[in-house]
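[audit] Reproducing an earlier prediction to check determinism. Same input, same settings, fresh worker. If the tokens differ from the archived copy the diff job will pick it up downstream; this log only records the rerun itself.
[audit] input (386 residues):
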Amino acid sequence: MRTTLIKFINTIAFMFFIGITSLSAQTTLVDPEWEFFDDFEGTVDNTFWKGNGVSMNYGVNRPDASSKVLESVYIPNSEGNGDSWSEYDFLLGIDAVQVEISFKMFTPADYVPIELNHKFFYLWSGLYGSYYSNIAVNTETWSNGVVALPAIHTSSIIADSEPYRSGHSFNTNQIPIYEEGDGEWSTYQIFLELATEDGDYGYYEVFKDGVYLTATYEPTLNNWGWTGSNPDFDGDEMIPYATITSDAYYNQWGDYILSGGNFINQGTLLGWANGDPDGGFLVDTKFLFDDFRIRANATFGATTLSINDETIENTISIFPNPTYSTFTIHLKDETLEKAIIYNHLGQQIKKETTNKVDISNLSNGVYFVKITSQSGKTATGKVIKY
């Protein structure tokens, strides 16, 4: 039940950071088994990117000509009925149970949120589509009339011919992914961890510029829209374990489905924009991408937490994590001054001045580490003692 434990700990960490320090905690892989990076400066790698995409231009110059980028163009009504389409599909190099994605994206100044849904990214295995894939997780944006809000949608084959679908689930705090007339670059980070076994559940989270947007463990997550309330909905159970079937089979619609499995091996950047006849893009809308990175594990590996606040931009690493005795703190381009250990109540229980910290005498559980560098910068992370 490792994923359930980590998911619970992230929920506690989120509440701790918001209530105590207003920090944002992003999950990252410590030592991934597979990694891909593209700055779009060279030739396209067709072992990762599938074909030329739809209305995607690889390696075009940024407006200031400082570097090359990936360009996505939404042409008004290109698909009819107010809909537009631009996407780039990709293949992971492994069947992944943990996936971390980060990229920079420019939202144009002439961007206006469309009336209905607009795909942001999509991760899956098997056949495409929530009724057909082994497992699928995607984020779409929906307009509330002012900005584009993120929605989480998931599906899994949990028994032959019985796909689970979560519906579109919103963070009722209404933190936007895109804003009208943005005209700026932002950095996005997505983390997904699948369930470890039947009866367990995975989790995933989305950040923008180090600021938390939404996650399956978000307390206000709701599948009745961003203003409704569904007392029977539990975001913690949005990503169930995908059944591994022994043979291919026909689903209830008569579609031939290959053997399922609890893994992710494909993805899509952006996608269909469902604008409705009177609510689609009105002008050619061009999104730009740079520094696209994806890291993944085929087996469950260690993760760490990177924290961003007003005083520090560097990523901290705490490893091994979880640990039963000691852990090491690594600061990029900084030297440690002190590390203060807090329990889940926010009570200080230990102070260290070395990068290696011994917690073997502490009880099992979650601890928070506030780190101060010799230059006076601070960051906070969490460590799990087992």
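[audit] rerun output stored. Observation attached for the diff report: The two ends are 14 Å apart (CA to CA).
[audit] end
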